[in-house]
Amino acid sequence: MANKPLFHYQNGSVVSNKHVFGRRRSSAASQRKPILMPLLCGMMLFCLGMLSLFTGQMASDLDRYSQRFMKQSLFNLDENNRGPIDIWESEYAKYFYGCSVRSATFPDAIREQSPNGYLLIAASGGLNQQRTGISDAVVVARILNATLVVPELDHNSYWKDDSDFVNIFYVDWFISYLAKDVTVVRRVPDKFMRSMEKPPYTMRVPRKSPPEYYLDQVLPILKRRHVLQLTKFDYRLANNIDEDLQKLRCRSNFHALRFTEPIQALGQKLVKKMRQMANRFMAVHLSYIGGGDKERYELREIRWETLPDIDAVGERRRGKCPLTPHEVGLMLRALGFENDAYIYVASGEIYGGEETLEPLKDLFPNLYTKEILANEDLKPFLPFSSCLATIDYIVCDESDVFVTNNNGNMAKILAGRRRYMGHKRTIRPNSKRLSPLLMQRDQMDWNTFAEKVKAVQRGFMGEPDEMRAGRGEFHEYPYSCICEKPASDIIAAGNNGGGDGDHHQSRQFKENEGLRKRSNEEEPVLGAKEDEDVFRD
Predict the structure, then answer these.
(1) Residues β-bridged to residue 387
(2) At what angle are helices 446-456 and 431-439 packed, to 10 degrees?
(3) Is 478 exposed, middle or buried (0-12, 13-18, 19+ CB in 10 A)?
(4) How many Cβ atoms are within 10 Å of 18's Cβ, its own excluded?
C-alpha cells in the first residue's frame, strides 16, 4: 500500500507522494518511475475529464435538440413551414389554454377596514379603451393595497354615452369575483366622506407607469389624503409587470368583467341567429375613414378641431391606414374564404354608409349586422353607443373567425381574449406589406395575387406561435396567461383517439375550474367595447 500513488493537486500540478516521501533511488529507472507513473495517470485523468465534458455537453445538446424536435413534431410551429393554413381554425390551438389561477404565494386582499385608502378611477375613451383601464385599475389597487371604488366611465369623449358601469357590467359579479384579490366597493362610505377635511385628491399618472412609480409617487398621497382619484386612466400601467399581477390583469379582464343580462341576452340571440344560418361564420370589425379632403373636413366638424395634413395615398401605401371594406373582402377571398361564407359586420357608422359596404357585399352576399338581425330588440340600446359596442363584441367573441381592418382597441382586446379562450382564429391585416400589394393588384392575375396575400399574412392569422413574451400590448398578447398543454397529455390524447376538444380534459387545464368555484354561475362570457379611433395612440 505504501507504494500506491496518492495524488494531490498543488498549483494545478499532479504530484506523487512517492516522489515527496519515498526513498531516494540511484538508478535512472527508479528515478523515472515516480515521474512517469504520475504523468501517465494525470494524462488519463485529463482525458477522462475532457471526455466527460464532451459527452456531458453532447448529452445536453441532444436533450435540447430532442425537445425541440419533439415540440416541432407535436406542434409543427417551425417558422420555415410553408404548408397551407386552415383558414377556419388553428391546428395547434388545442395544445394551449388560458391559465390565470392565483398562485399559492399570492396573498388574499386586505379587508376594507385596514387598507391604505380608497382609490377612485375615471376611465377614458371608448368602451374598449376603458376596459383596459378598468383591468389595470384592479392591479393598481392591489399594488397600493387600496380599496377600489367601482370605476367611473367616460361621459365626455366623442362617443357621448351617459352609461355608467352598472349599465354595462354586472357589478355584483365584479365585486364578488375579485374579492380575494382586491376589495371593491360601489362608493366611498358617506360617513367617511363627511369626515374628510379636504375633497379627494385628483392626479393623472404618466402612461405605462411601472409599479415602482405607484409605490413611490402615488402611495404617499393616498396614505395622506385617504381618498385619491386617478383621471384619464387608460394604459397607465406598464406592460411588463410581475407574473402574479399579470394573471390578475387576466382575471379582471377575462372573468370579472361580465355584461349585464339584457346586453348579454341580446348578444347571444344574435349569435344564435347566425348559427341557424351557417354552422360557422366570420365577424368582421370595420373602422374606416376615407382620408380625403372631404373626410378630413367632416372629421374636424364632428370630432377633432385640428387634423394634420397628410398624403392619404402615401400613408396607405406605407400601411398606415385601415383597409377599405373592399380590400378586406379581397384579402379574405385570397386567403380562401368562399363567397357563400356568412359574415357579421361589427362597426359603428362607417363613413360612406351602405355605398362603402357595397363592394364587400358583392364579394360576400351573406352579410349581416346587428341592425338587420336584432330588429325591434335593438331599440332600447340605440341611444347608447357603449351598449351597441358590447353587442358587437359578444358576437365577434363567439364567431369562428374574427377579422379586423385596423389595430384599434376593440381589435386588440378581442384578439387577446380569443387567444386566452383557445386561440380562436383571429385575422388582422399585415398592412405594411398588404397595402402596397392591394394597390398593385391590377398588375397581376388572381392566382398570383392570392398566393402573395397568403404569404404576407403568415404571422397575422392568430396562430399560437405569434404569442411571444413582451410582444405588443399585454391586453393583445396575454403571454403570462397562456399555458401549453404537457406533451405527455397530448400524446395520451392522440393514443386515445382524442379530437380537438380533448385539451379541455387536461390536468393542467382544470386549473381554470378554480376560477369558477367562486360562484355556482357558469363562466362569464365577455362582452364588447367601442373601439378607440385608429388614428389615436
Answers:
(1) none
(2) 170
(3) buried
(4) 18
Q: What is the DSSP letter of 256?
A: I
Terminal CA-CA length for the chain: 82
Q: Are 468 and 477 in contact (CB under 8 A)?
A: yes
Question: Which among 486, 316, 480, 281 is positioned nearest to 406, based on CA atoms?
Answer: 316
Task: CATH number for 261-294+308-484: choose from 3.30.1360, 3.40.50, 1.25.40, 3.30.70.
Answer: 3.40.50
15, pLDDT greater than 50: no
The average pLDDT across 449-457 equals: 96
* DSSP category for residue 343: E
Helices H, strands E: what count in the chain?
21, 14
Strand-pairing partners, residue 149, are: 185
Instruction: Report H helices in 303-408.
Output: 312-317, 325-335, 353-363, 370-374, 385-398
Q: What CA–CA distances, in Å, run from 170 to 408, 525, 527, 530?
A: 25, 12, 11, 18
Write the single-letter amino acid at 62: L
Size of the chain, expressed as the number of residues it contains: 537
At 423, list the grid cell: 386561440
CA distance 81 to 214: 45
pLDDT digits (tens, 9 = 90+) for 50-101: 555 544 444 444 333 333 333 333 334 444 445 678 999 999 999 999 999 9
DSSP character for 253? I
The amino acid at residue 169 is: F
What DSSP string runs through 214-252? Answer: IIIIIHHHHHHHSEEEEEEESS-B-SS--HHHHHHHHHI
| DSSP line for 169-228 | B-HHHHHHHTTTT--EESS--HHHHHH-SSPPEEE-PPTTB-HHHIIIIIHHHHHHHSEE
* Type of residue at 373: L
Residue found by looking up cell 359574415 in the block: 343
Whether the CA torsion 501, 251, 170, 136 is positive or negative: it is negative
Residue type, 481: C
Identity at 36, one-letter amino acid code: L
Residues 259 and 174: their CA atoms lie apart, in Å, by 10
What is the reported pTM? 0.76
Residues 6+ apart with CB under 8 A from 202: 228, 229, 231
What is the residue type of 32?
A: R
Cβ(94)–Cβ(506) below 8 Å: no
State how far the Cα of 490 lies from the Cα of 506, in Å rounded to an integer: 9
Q: Name the least confident of 196-200, 277-281, 358-362, 421-425.
A: 196-200
Look at strands 482-484 and 96-98 and give their pairing. Answer: antiparallel
Cβ–Cβ < 8 Å for 502, 422: no
Residue linked to cell 354595462:
168
